[in-house]
Design brief:
By secondary structure, the protein is an alpha+beta fold. It contains 1 helix and 10 strands; from the N terminus they run H-E-E-E-E-E-E-E-E-E-E.
Amino acid sequence: IVFLLIPFIVFSQTEENKRKSVLKKGIINKTFTFGKWDEKGNDELNLTYLGIIKNETTSYKVMTSLWIWGISGRATSRILFYDINNNYIGEYYLTMSYELPKKIKCNKLYFNLNDDCKGKTEVSFEKGIPKHLLLNCNKSNYLASSFGKN
């Protein structure tokens, strides 16, 4: 078990350094790719800084993370939140890579989802970071994730 955990521990440490480098650059909606996934076991990390969401009391830097790993090309998708000084606050885990938000506009995250949601949906951060990320779709609400730290 120890041998299986070591690659994930090492990856998470280097991933944080990569996240901070993207945050420091501050280029909105540019995806930075680290590595190149292949069937030999190499992984790929795509980080996109979406910008800053503000509310009455604070500001959050928001970034998406798509990590492609394993011989079958599995993907781990997350929405990452940092304070204005680039300190990690927490994240939402998402099931599918297409669920990642595409932009920030008027202090809201905008998502382009499948036909069940008729294209676009948004999440407001007016009252702070919601405990649950709830995307409103046509016939029902879709819970993507709960907010937490990894």
